[in-house]
């Protein structure tokens, strides 16, 4: 295996990041490209873990779904979404999951499996969208400014656990009372 083949295998998405999006237009302007470093800044400490999972997705076709698995998304659904700053998705997942749990609890495992299977794809699309928006709407004078903005916009939200864990406990209590 040549060094070039090895580099291509190690990149997490099958695309040339420096050239990504150069042919796509936003109201007459060209979309900025996304680099691996942009994703790393946005994701944070677990970037390498997500890079391995993102390999199946194409940055040029963000709606091209591929199956992957995310244990955190499977076990913690809306908590994982909120932790990864996908707040709208967390709210929707909580509401739908609660409705399923009340009306058809037998379907809950399928709901959790959906997030286990689609979680990485949802996060990939979320990261890609926010990186492109940030780069298209702000002019950064250097890489450090962009990196700081990506880290602020992305990353994780640890305080959300103080809210989500009590909600999980409430869900558990409700399910116990429902079973009685």
Helix content: 55-70%
The residue ranges in which pLDDT falls below 50 over 5 or more consecutive positions are 5-10, 14-29
Radius of gyration: 19 Å
Which strands sit side by side, in order, in the main sheet?
1-2
Assembly type of the chains comes to single chain
Strand % is under 5%
Which sequence of SSEs, written as H and E, runs from N to C?
HEEHHHHHHH
What number is the mean pLDDT? 82
Number of strands: 2
Class computed from helices, strands and strand pairing: mainly alpha
Q: Biggest β-sheet, characterized?
A: 2 strands, antiparallel
How far apart lie the N and C ends?
A: 61 Å
Q: Number of helix segments?
A: 8
What gross morphology would you assign?
Answer: elongated
What number of structural domains do the residues give? Answer: 1
Care to give the gist of this entry?
With 180 residues, this protein is mainly alpha-helical. The protein has helices at 3-10, 36-43, 47-54, 71-83, 87-103, 108-137, 143-153, 160-179; strands spanning 25-26, 29-30.
Topology:
Layout: H1 3-10, E1 25-26, E2 29-30, H2 36-43, H3 47-54, H4 71-83, H5 87-103, H6 108-137, H7 143-153, H8 160-179
Antiparallel strand pairs: 1-2
Helix pairs in contact: 2-3, 2-7, 4-5, 4-6, 4-8, 6-7
């Amino acid at each position: 295996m040549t060094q070039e083949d090895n580099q291509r295998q190690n990149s997490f998405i099958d695309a040339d990041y420096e050239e990504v999006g150069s042919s796509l237009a936003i109201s007459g302007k060209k979309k900025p490209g996304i680099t691996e470093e942009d994703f790393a800044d946005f994701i944070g400490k677990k970037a390498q873990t997500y890079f391995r999972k993102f390999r199946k997705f194409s940055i040029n076709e963000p709606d091209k779904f591929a199956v992957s698995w995310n244990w955190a998304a499977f076990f913690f659904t809306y908590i994982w979404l909120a932790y990864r700053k996908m707040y709208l998705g967390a709210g929707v997942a909580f509401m739908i999951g609660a409705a399923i749990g009340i009306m058809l609890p037998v379907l809950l495992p399928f709901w959790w499996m959906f997030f286990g299977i689609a979680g990485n794809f949802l996060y990939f699309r979320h990261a890609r969208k926010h990186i492109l928006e940030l780069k298209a709407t702000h002019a950064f004078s250097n890489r450090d400014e962009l990196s700081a903005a990506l880290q602020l916009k992305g990353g994780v939200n640890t305080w959300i656990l103080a809210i989500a864990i009590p909600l999980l406990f409430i869900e558990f209590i409700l399910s116990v009372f429902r079973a009685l």
